[in-house]
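CORE FACILITY INTAKE
Project code: CF-77B
Contact: R.S. (postdoc)
Sample description: multi-component assembly, two entities in total
Requested service: structural model of the whole complex
Turnaround: standard
Below are the sequence entries exactly as provided by the requester. Do not edit them.
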Amino acid sequence: MTTTLAPGADLFDRHRETLENARAAIRSRAYYSAYPESASPKVYGETAHADGKAAFEARLGKPFALQQPSSGETVATERSPYGIALDVRYPVADIDALIAAAQRAMEGWAAASYDARTGVALEALKRLNAMSFEMANAVMHTSGQAYLMGFQAGGPHAQDRALEAIAYAYDEMARVPERVLWEKPGKPEPLRIEKTYRVVPRGIALTIGCSTFPTWNAYPGLFASLVTGNAVIVKPHPLAVLPLAITVEVLQSVLRDAGFDPCVVTLAVDTPERPLAKVLAQRPEVAIVDYTGSTAFGDWLEQNAGALVYTEKAGVNSVVIDSTADLTGMMRNLAMSISLYSGQMCTTPQNLFVPAGGITANGEKLPFDEVVGALVKAVDGLLGDPARAAGVLGAIATDATLRRVEEENAKPGVVRRSEAVQNPDFPNARVRSPLIAVVDANDRERYDREAFGPIAFVVRTADTDESLRLATDESKRKGAITAIVHSTDPAVLEKAQRWARDGKVNLAANLTGGLLVNQSAAFSDYHVSGGNPSGNASLTDAAFVANRFRIIETRTPVA
Amino acid sequence: MTTTLAPGADLFDRHRETLENARAAIRSRAYYSAYPESASPKVYGETAHADGKAAFEARLGKPFALQQPSSGETVATERSPYGIALDVRYPVADIDALIAAAQRAMEGWAAASYDARTGVALEALKRLNAMSFEMANAVMHTSGQAYLMGFQAGGPHAQDRALEAIAYAYDEMARVPERVLWEKPGKPEPLRIEKTYRVVPRGIALTIGCSTFPTWNAYPGLFASLVTGNAVIVKPHPLAVLPLAITVEVLQSVLRDAGFDPCVVTLAVDTPERPLAKVLAQRPEVAIVDYTGSTAFGDWLEQNAGALVYTEKAGVNSVVIDSTADLTGMMRNLAMSISLYSGQMCTTPQNLFVPAGGITANGEKLPFDEVVGALVKAVDGLLGDPARAAGVLGAIATDATLRRVEEENAKPGVVRRSEAVQNPDFPNARVRSPLIAVVDANDRERYDREAFGPIAFVVRTADTDESLRLATDESKRKGAITAIVHSTDPAVLEKAQRWARDGKVNLAANLTGGLLVNQSAAFSDYHVSGGNPSGNASLTDAAFVANRFRIIETRTPVA
């Protein structure tokens, strides 16, 4: 046995090019991806799909082992929205022991160079990338995402988002020199001081996962906290444990291989009956909290946790439809945006503001009712083929969303009911098509709140100015993560910029082709502005990473 | 009259070199200063001292005019610790009107380029630099600093700290490109999206000033918030209004000259009877709060303000004395550190941990009592000459500090009483020499809290290990801004690194010459780590600036 003097250093060398590419990408914000999103057998191998499925299935009905303190109990909290049995049993955490283990593990982790920590993180991403089809199944059968989305969003896209956060964090740490000689001119001699600067972690970081995008939303904070020297406790959503359990498993294996204590990253599984997020967030040892989930709990964390808190909460996303030069393209794009994963994306448009007098489409006046009709037709067309519909819609993740859809179906103004859709591969999958309802601008209690799931409102307004005013106001009060404007009028597009600035929401204009507002690309798109009530942080900017560590300086006079 | 299309752009060009020098300096952390700290007539001009005094005196007994909404009332809240009459009367703010004016002014300010805003800020610093001797008098007669310190810390050093924060903020904004063409490979065509990124301010920033270093502590947050597009309301300490009133006056004049609404920066003066800090900090329009002051109010702000809060609070700074190769140098340095500005610096050492068995000094064993004796002698020597003593000690800023010193004088263990000292120039100045008391390590209630002012404790410990343990623990629990270790033993110096890391406090080793631990140099030293209870932010790092603005993106498909 040889001792590794600098654990992780070889891993850093191995992945240096990936890091440098990512650092260049966050500067240029041009297209970049380190982990291929193509599910083609040419990219991931002929047997990748089958191997991934087999690996996933091999986990079902078994205990999930991790190297961390446990109470001895296990718990199975997940249920596949596709109706298959999961019954993966996770160790129930002993919180005191877990925190103590994280603190012990952090000693060596914080003492390592940030290069070494970055090497470990990048090696873990590489191993996770190789497991992307296993992850696809894990994400699919917990979140209800369709298989291809589970692969892309749960695999390579999440890995890219992790890499992006690592690159940001690395940039911030690398900005600080390790040592300087500071010479201040003076008489008879200059003052000569040797100064060293050391990156020091804040403490234990807590990552609170969500049920819809368990890896994509958790990775940026998790990996940024790790490379900056913090230990991380991952508290997954009880309905979506497996994707993060696999992530922790991989991280622990790389940590072990590199000579670190695997308890640098641990999993704290809870149950709806005995939730742990509040308990963990209020522990004095916890210095950082990353959270994706409901506004109510996000607000509670922001106000009550003593730690630094980074949140992505809920918003109400709007589309302002004024005019278009491509009615078919616009409607096809909107139909896909509201149908994709049954509207269970934080980026899904909910409120479509349309003037009562209609819009100008392809140079002609289109009355309000025909705008609505074109949207319904586009959704019906998209979902006409059951196999295709299943691939677009995925399945419904939570009972609460199912109930919400049933309630909305019974309300007035519904022009397209949400209906059960059969999934050819999973007869017990709970799939629902999107509901579309027409409401008046003054019917605020109906549309002026998040209606999470496959629910869209066409809001009848006096004119586009009112549409913009309502959308801006909504973003300010309720938050918004995405915004779309459709207009052929430069003056309206200019006014929409004002909506984006005042509502602090990212805007997309005239999406009629392949880009969906739902998509947010690593290295280029800022996900959540952090400036309205939908969240206090952005994935990823410097503010998201720069406070996860502190710099400790020493000054020593030099003779 | 010609209209300026880009207000402030010419100012940016004029000061571009200063900015680029500062940006290079924060990267290298080598010595740099843009504003000369030498008070020599050769630097600032033959008449600079006299002109500054005259300008200061011309303000006394008069109303102070600012271009902002006011209630019509005026108030004079300051009292010179040097005993001269000030009676500058400031407008009492109408808070609702002030916030409305700040919001209106922010429209044009946020719409300007960050180059333009940076130009305005740098021009203001240049004008403030030219007024440094006026500022010296203003700082002296509010804070009680000695004249030369008032000049340096209130003038060029504060200006350098402002420039440093501007350079950091500029770096962060400049990292984001304004526009990119994002091309994602695809078939048959790549996806082509034009993306724009815009820096958008958070809202109104509130700067809450302190009584001891009104400009030095306020400038970093104030200027960082300004260049990132926020409007700033400055709420000075009622005892130290004039330095910040002058600052606001200068900023308003530059804003006006550059074609901006001067209410981008306004002053909110309050009185001890009718404090405004809580009222302002809880206004929903206030998005950022910068605060320097007591721990109690800083904690309240961190927990209760809805805004982003950056605090510098109080700490208990320690010196661990283990051994030295230069007893005279060590004692001279320590005597100066605890005497300077009568210990009213947040960086002043308070607790000097010395083993009961004494130390090794210049190769020989020095018993505990002789260590104490050498310190008392060094302080007596430093303050023996009244004129020199006055220049070192300054005057006592607040009644609370005077009372505290009287109370400590009456307690056991005092080996050097705090005495009134005559200032040859100001017969009514309230000057006190440092008190030194010897206490036991277990006498925690005596020394284990901040005793702000000219009060130092020599704490008798079992050994250096106990000294380090107590100092580390204190930093974790009470916070610390500075730390000194004196040792000739590399093992002790290594253990002290651990104190720095675990207590998250910046450390100085073996200061025996010209560098005082009290000093914190712009562009090189991080002031406050932001990782212990003495404050949640550091002057200045990326985390201090990166969250003061948000980035708003637009995406538009390109045909």
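Facility notes:
- Chain B touches chain A through 60 residues (CB under 8 Å).
- Confidence is low (pLDDT under 50) at residues 1-5 of chain B.
Invoice: internal transfer
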